[in-house]
Give the backbone structure.
Amino acid sequence: MSPALAPPVAAVLQVAVAVVVGAAVRWRARSAYEGPADDAETAAALGRLRRRGVAVGTVVTAALTRLSGLARSVQADATAAVAEAAGPTAGAVAGVAAAVAVYALPVVAVAVAVRLATVPYRRAVRGFRLRYRDAAAWELERDGVGFLGVVLAAAVALVPAGWPRVVAAVGLGLVATALTPVALVVALRTRWPTDEERAAVGDALPAGVRLRVVDDRTRLGSAFAAGIVPGAEYVFLTESLFATLDGDELRAVVAHEVGHHEHGHVLLRYALVAVAAGAALGAASVAPDAALVAILLGAPPFAVALAWVVRRTEEGSDAYAAEAVGGAALADALETLAERRYVAAGGDGWSGLLSHHPPLGDRIDRLRSHSTGPRAG
């Protein structure tokens, strides 16, 4: 089936959507920056503006891709080419992967355009040492993970259908999760801590958990945990935390990230994604033609469920840090980081359904009411 629009025309229109959305976000971002709101309110407004820009761009580009017939054409071509070389099942999965890529690539272009549009104003109100190329590289690296997942799904199609294929997909995902710290060390601007930084962390970092210090321009978060293999579990901290937080506050933040490792949260999050990936592969095996529709319809409820679980893990790690260092220390750290706009406020209401962190005020109140202090020894 030939597309309703020639591929070059569809591609030009998709690029035009990214440019228009980026320009609109830039205009609105400038208005927000020049408005009467303080820096914290402006930063929150810029975040909402980015999300809305990506949402609008996603809807428009998806509609354009659908109406142009481009996805159907690419899916048919990829299916035929791979089926001839590796069989009909592999061809069907490759077709789904190609169709997803056709829908996703324009969205990536929109996401990059929107992120670049707000860089100068985010830099001004949040004190980021953030360059355009840093922001673009971060967005492309993050979105590249999704594309890698599609490619791996197509590769797994070469495995016999049924449980062998599902096991192969889960196994590949597990390997990818185990190698995440290595990828982060390579991809991000990281280094080993100095003696002073290691001393500041103290006993909050147990043996077997490694610490890496991240350049402040890498805005993946102020602190995060990665790795599931004992001896290769990492805590990543941005450089600014050492200058921003006092001793107990810094140790509490580290303890929170260690809590993710101690309670198996990193592996739990992987398991949820693995279950979704297995379900997607099952759909592709049983009904290839309906697989893309199933993935698109299943993605929103899965995202809500995943966000709920992640919020629970954050609460669990807060409790671990409160026991290890003290609830007041982590509450003080969160307040300090919020003042510097280094942590997200978390969502409430409808927006909270997709938030990966509980509302910041609720976290702080819960920590201050936590009666347990630092553990002995």
Summary: The radius of gyration is 22 Å.
